[in-house]
Task: inverse folding
């Protein structure tokens, strides 16, 4: 603002951004398909579940639940669901929206309806930054990303496996990961899903943090469960879904479909499959405990014709995102989509284009829980420190987008037009002075200076500015307070469980 | 496609992409504002034109046209337009859509309605590439960008001032620029707008290329005219609008508003102003020659609170884009928006994020003519060779998005589900083999390989791959045939006009 004083500028710069605990969208969803189109997708999803069937391999209680609900079971594992039954089960009891409670009540998030929650990327074995390059993730990296997520104003959620801490035995990692989310952040988080036992440990730690009674009646943890697409749920995954549901916690049920590999290459077919699988899993949670919260997920992408490699930020999954948003609203359950996805190995223009091409349709499609919103690189194989803060910057812009346009007297600024008149500038007029501090979303990592100034400051590309930012953020980090007695009980639990278990690799 | 033969893969790779002359969107527009909201914007736009008034400075015939139409003129230059009159003039005669003819009839574009035309960036004094860096543009650069635009499958239009050829005298540049579009491309293009005389020269050259009679009854050239926002049209600009309209050619009427400078900082006010100014200019063209084609333009962006510098790809202009799409449809004229806009000095992640944040709302908002779709860097000060081909790649993806989702039997792929069944893969199934070559949009510049392969190939970021591509494209360039007699007449005209004019700098 050239018209404002230097003092006012500095003050405005120092003010922390106003960030809500979650987004409530004031703008409408984008409606890609007509009602007839949506009915056609639903009909095909029903047909897949009825005619082809969905397998559950090695979880007799889950099969029994479906049998009792009216499904036809073939070969002890293939569940043929009469058309409409899965939808009916979901609609009968799954909440359309619910609150996931954080240990800091101000951070609790509303999931579903017109709300959107951003969570960081999930599951990468590698981490990368400009200085140290690409390497396996460690528990120290895990702590760093939890801390960066805590400090990120536009991330509402601490996420789950923000990177794999490969320096901790596989069967004990979940204890350290859940503890890190509880200790180093006060935002809501996700628990383990690799085995039902680890899911139970995650929930048990929540009972220590929130109190057992509170946990039984409030959602405090999510578990992100992948379907073994096409149309298979292995017994461990189905037990994990049932474990979260039984504890009144929320499984996120996520078909994992790269078109041409785990589903057909054509988008309509992959979409119908994805919807069928996710609805089947959400219904299973309802059969286990009616009324328990759940999220309908999807992980749908394309592949490279040249190499068979997975591709991200391509137009086909964008169309699928937009349509599945409509399907989830018709079904009446919250939707998870992926956020800033990309295939690029570095935080370059490819990464940014692909990420934006993924975030835009997820957001406009009305996704309620957007996982992989920050840090994702390399088809999910690496978590990038630089991209993490760059993505967070982009999430901030979507907060402004979500608010829509203020069509009130101040917004229309008629007095300013009267004051300024034709051919004059608005830099110093009363309306500008009254509004400029909040008028525009201000990116922390975009360089808008002139070429000469940018050059004088080192001609940095965005990742280099991002490097400075995440390093400064980590230096400034201070842990949110945690009751020492609770902390001790969590550490005791973790120590006891670790002592009970031999180190494992699977 | 791992399941397909190497031969099939190579053949598919070699096949030229199927690119239409323009896009016809099969997907719906995004509707941001309600009918009440749109009426409020229209009401405020009307009020600006009636109460504040729009000046035309130094063009008595234009003032006379408005006086005869019923406007009240104050101080010989301020035009107070009764509420609703500008809209009424536009609706009475401006075409809702029209064809801009190319010298190659297959390249003619339809502008308006459900159609979208992509044109390259316009007006930068500088050009930049990875090898030579940033420098003033020359006529050689101009030729290069016309050639690259000709070769770009996803650019429908050759544009206008693809860069400023600063090595040619200012008052003669237009002759070389228009000739370059005619000679080195066969796509539609834009003419000069810096003076009415140069606009007339541009149109005269079209008469030589297309025939005078054809030009009088068909649109063959656009002229991109900036309003001197707020609410002023200088006499040269208004004469240029009238010159194009009088020749039955299409002025693109573009308010130039950076919120807080040439308009209020609040989006609703800037939007109402933009709509008022553009409608006023389109109406002027209709008063000059009813029924002549025109495009409603906008160039709306925000500014940095920290420096006062213009910013691009921010959420406020995204909201404005979405709303002005609705306003243009209600008015019934084709809409121009900006495409891949950014403030970054290099083709990095910032450039890509900002560009995507600009292209998405322009496209979903239903813009019909998207200028600045390729090459734009540095708030429009530089045209980048690398970003040009990177942007074109992104435009290709939007062609797929525009087609929407095929909800037919092949799309739903029921036979593939029956063939493959649960737990198996789709790589080699009949449906995949029949569809994989056309199933996914294949970026030319995204690297989707694994980290190790990417590293073995030099660990290139996207701009480095883009550099190889534009260099290879220019090497492969072959000019489209042009009748030698026409070519000679164009060169004669240009030589004669240059001889008539002393070298000028303004």
Result:
């Amino acid at each position: 603002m050239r018209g404002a004083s230097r003092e006012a500028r500095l003050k405005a710069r120092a003010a922390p951004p106003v960030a809500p605990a979650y987004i409530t969208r004031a703008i409408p969803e984008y409606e890609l398909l007509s009602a007839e189109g949506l009915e056609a997708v639903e009909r095909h999803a029903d047909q897949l579940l009825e005619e082809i069937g969905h397998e559950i391999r090695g979880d007799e209680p889950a099969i029994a639940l479906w049998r009792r609900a009216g499904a036809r079971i073939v070969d002890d594992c293939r569940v043929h669901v009469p058309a409409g039954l899965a939808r009916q089960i979901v609609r009968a009891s799954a909440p359309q929206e619910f609150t996931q409670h954080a240990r800091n009540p101000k951070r609790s998030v509303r999931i579903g309806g017109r709300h959107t929650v951003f969570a960081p990327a999930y599951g990468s074995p590698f981490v990368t930054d400009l200085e140290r390059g690409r390497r396996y993730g460690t528990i120290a990296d895990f702590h760093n990303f939890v801390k960066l997520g805590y400090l990120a104003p536009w991330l509402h959620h601490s996420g789950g496996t923000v990177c794999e801490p490969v320096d901790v035995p596989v069967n004990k990692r979940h204890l350290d990961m859940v503890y890190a989310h509880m200790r180093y952040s006060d935002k809501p988080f996700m628990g383990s899903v690799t085995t039902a036992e680890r899911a139970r440990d995650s929930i048990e730690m929540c009972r220590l943090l929130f109190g057992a009674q509170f946990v039984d009646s409030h959602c405090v943890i999510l578990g992100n469960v992948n379907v073994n697409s096409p149309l298979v749920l292995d017994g461990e995954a189905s037990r994990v879904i049932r474990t979260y549901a039984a504890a009144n916690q929320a499984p996120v049920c996520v078909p994992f479909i790269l078109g041409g590999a785990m589903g057909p290459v054509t988008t309509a077919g992959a979409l119908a499959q994805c919807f069928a699988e996710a609805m089947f899993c959400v219904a299973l949670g309802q059969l286990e405990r009616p009324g328990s919260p759940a999220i309908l997920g999807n992980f749908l992408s394309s592949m490279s014709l040249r190499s068979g490699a997975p591709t991200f930020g391509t137009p086909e999954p964008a169309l699928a995102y937009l349509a599945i948003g409509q399907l989830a609203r018709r079904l009446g359950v919250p939707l998870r989509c992926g956020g800033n996805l990309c295939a690029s190995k570095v935080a370059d223009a490819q990464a940014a284009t692909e990420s934006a091409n993924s975030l835009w349709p997820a957001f406009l499609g009305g996704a309620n829980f957007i996982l992989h919103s920050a840090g994702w690189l390399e088809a999910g194989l690496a978590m990038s420190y630089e991209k993490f803060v760059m993505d967070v910057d982009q999430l901030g812009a979507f907060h402004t987008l979500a608010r829509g346009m203020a069509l009130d007297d101040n917004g229309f600024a008629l007095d300013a037009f009267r004051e300024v008149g034709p051919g004059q500038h608005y830099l110093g007029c009363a309306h500008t002075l009254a509004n400029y501090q909040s008028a525009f979303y201000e990116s922390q990592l975009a360089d808008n200076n002139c070429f000469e100034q940018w050059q004088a400051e080192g001609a940095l590309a965005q990742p280099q500015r991002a490097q400075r930012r995440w390093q400064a953020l980590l230096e400034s980090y201070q842990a949110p307070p945690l009751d020492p007695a609770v902390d001790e009980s969590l550490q005791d639990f973790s120590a006891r469980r670790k002592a009970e278990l031999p180190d494992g690799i699977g």
